[in-house]
Amino acid sequence: MVLAELGGSISRALQQMSNATVIDEKVLNDCLNDITRALLQSDVQFKLVRDMQTNIKHIVNLDDLAAGHNKRRIIQQAVFNELCKILDPGKPSFTPKKGKTSVVMFVGLQGSGKTTTCTKYAYYHQKKGWKPALVCADTFRAGAFDQLKQNATKAKIPFYGSYMESDPVKIAVEGVERFKEENCDLIIVDTSGRHKQETALFEEMRQVSEATKPDLVIFVMDSSIGQAAFDQAQAFKQSVAVGAVIVTKMDGHAKGGGALSAVAATKSPVIFIGTGEHMDEFEVFDVKPFVSRLLGMGDWSGFMDKIQEVVPMDQQPELLQKLSEGNFTLRIMYEQFQKILKMGPISQVFSMLPGFGAELMPKGQLDSSNPKLMNESRIMRIARGAGRQIREVMEMMEEYKRLAKIWSKMKGLKIPKKGEMSALSRNMNAQHMSKVLPPQMLKQIGGMGGLQNLMKQMGSAKDMMGMGGLFGGGGD
Ligand SMILES: Nc1nc2c(ncn2[C@@H]2O[C@H](COP(=O)(O)OP(=O)(O)OP(=O)(O)O)[C@@H](O)[C@H]2O)c(=O)[nH]1
């Protein structure tokens, strides 16, 4: 996941603390120092980090905590709350509505990823049934129109622009008019990238904004600038009515934590983050689920949304039957990975599961449930054929063995029929699951209580026959 390093460091600090037999002042201080170091490395402002440390110490008064209280959970919750506080601007952004025309204008520094992000934003909404369209009002950078045209064509999104016209205001107005007539509900206007000092380009941006009257202006910002994001966002906000921010290149930059917190400090809501160059490497940014994933605590609502997007409901009963018989083959793993891949980049999906890191699980193959059949020469052949390293194929086999072991213990797991899941059978399945899950993951979820809670949450996704149904989550 994005900021995997930061998340990993914080989780490790919390884990080390929970490994201690007694959590005293020293153990707590060590843990907070580790978290502080990780946040500073991510370029989060010193004052914010120091305040966070003070607040946690204030909340977690070890002497006051009655014996028997789960100190680790209290501390973890305090860390969670404080991180949310740092990242939450406390103000939601304007949200366009499907079926009702909205004009959204993108602004940002040169090379921040604006043009790429316009298409990602359009594609994201198109997948959800919107009718987006793209207007290229960037007449400054040669090749900007071609880039937008190429992206838009790939995603099958209508676009408007001109090679001849040099007035961005004229193009923007014509494009918006055209797409209003065509009943598009999300008209996206891409503008030229500019530097803070370029007053002429800032004036041009103001004029485009005045002429097209956007419902929302989105400021696109590259995460690599870290806490300097504060000044940049402020400069743009002074010229146009920035209503939301998208932070890009979160995949490659350790300073992403700093960028996100700095933007929050300007009271501008971050609505999406860019996590790669591809069209679907784009994630909704929501503070609580983001922090939850950062701490390895998962994001069930996001996971359920993803599942509902891709899993064909009619194919689920057959799969559940096979799994409940303990019959987990490489083919099943392959097919499930294929489905998961459709949900977006795999690391993104797995980071939504509590206890999972963002480690990539390689795509695998075939029908045998006997890993012994995979001898050395076969592994070499597969590696050659797939253009992969032998090490990667071997890692995949290890992963398969690990999953197969889990599923073999699943034998006898009750498969609920639609709507017949009772609290009792959910508890029974929770007990079954608690024996199957790796102890580390169970601990991360919050033990037996946490697992039962989780199943309840999953169960609230009614009519789900995906993972929710599998783990015992039909409606009561
Ligand atoms: N790794 C990564 N690269 C990105 C991301 N978003 C954009 N890029 C890359 O950043 C580079 C610049 O992106 P553009 O979309 O051309 O930037 P721009 O802001 O439109 O550029 P100007 O029109 O010059 O202002 C391209 O190589 C993109 O592929 C992201 O989230 N992650």
From TrEMBL:
Residue ranges annotated for the SRP54-type proteins GTP-binding domain, each copy included: 269-282
PANTHER family: SIGNAL RECOGNITION PARTICLE 54K PROTEIN SRP54, SIGNAL RECOGNITION PARTICLE SUBUNIT SRP54
Domains: entry comment: The M domain binds the 7SL RNA in presence of SRP19 and binds the signal sequence of presecretory proteins.
Complex formation: Component of a signal recognition particle (SRP) complex that consists of a 7SL RNA molecule of 300 nucleotides and six protein subunits: SRP72, SRP68, SRP54, SRP19, SRP14 and SRP9.
Chief localisation class: cytoplasm
Family annotation (Gene3D superfamilies): P-loop containing nucleotide triphosphate hydrolases (3.40.50.300), Signal recognition particle SRP54, nucleotide-binding domain (1.20.120.140), Signal recognition particle, SRP54 subunit, M-domain (1.10.260.30)
Location of the protein in the cell: Cytoplasm; Endoplasmic reticulum
The keyword ATP-binding appears for this protein: no
Superkingdom of source: Eukaryota
Identification of the protein by name: Signal recognition particle 54 kDa protein
GO biological process: SRP-dependent cotranslational protein targeting to membrane, translocation
GO cellular component, one term: signal recognition particle, endoplasmic reticulum targeting
Species: Vigna mungo (Black gram)
Signal peptide (from-to): none
InterPro entries: AAA+_ATPase, P-loop_NTPase, Signal_recog_part_SRP54_M_sf, Signal_recog_particl_SRP54_hlx, Signal_recog_particle_SRP54_M, SRP/SRP_N, SRP54, SRP54_euk
NCBIfam families: SRP54_euk (TIGR01425)
GO MF, any single term: endoplasmic reticulum signal peptide binding
Function noted in UniProt: Component of the signal recognition particle (SRP) complex, a ribonucleoprotein complex that mediates the cotranslational targeting of secretory and membrane proteins to the endoplasmic reticulum (ER). As part of the SRP complex, associates with the SRP receptor (SR) component SRPRA to target secretory proteins to the endoplasmic reticulum membrane. Binds to the signal sequence of presecretory proteins when they emerge from the ribosomes. Displays basal GTPase activity, and stimulates reciprocal GTPase activation of the SR subunit SRPRA.
Record keyword Transferase present: no
Family label: Belongs to the GTP-binding SRP family. SRP54 subfamily.
The reaction(s) this protein catalyses: GTP + H2O = GDP + phosphate + H(+)
Keywords from the UniProt entry: Cytoplasm, Endoplasmic reticulum, GTP-binding, Hydrolase, Nucleotide-binding, Ribonucleoprotein, RNA-binding, Signal recognition particle
